[in-house]
From TrEMBL:
It comes from Ligilactobacillus araffinosus DSM 20653. It holds the Pfam family MazG-like. InterPro entries: dCTP_Pyrophosphatase, DCTPP. This is Nucleotide pyrophosphohydrolase. SUPFAM superfamilies: all-alpha NTP pyrophosphatases. GO terms for molecular function: nucleoside triphosphate diphosphatase activity. GO terms for biological process: nucleoside triphosphate catabolic process.
Amino acid sequence: MDYQKLMQELIDFRNSRGWDKGQTLPNLAKSVNIEAAEILEIFQWKKTNDELSEDEKTHLKGEIADTLIYLFYMCDRLDVDPMDVMKAKLEYNKGRKWD
């Protein structure tokens, strides 16, 4: 599925539930942080070399999706394409010195 089609499905889903008015940039930023914390929670008591169980991998995929969805909603509010933002950041990073 391409980005434009997925973004439209996300917008339609959000709007069908009346969530669009509450999704201000500050609220979306808070939601991104909350979902990212839920990603971290999966690893909270693991040692660095511990493998994830299948249930944990499934849970992790869901939390990654939640985080990305809120980031996509932020991009929608800012009227930016997330692919363009990532490409620009990659180009910027290629030009940086990493000492």
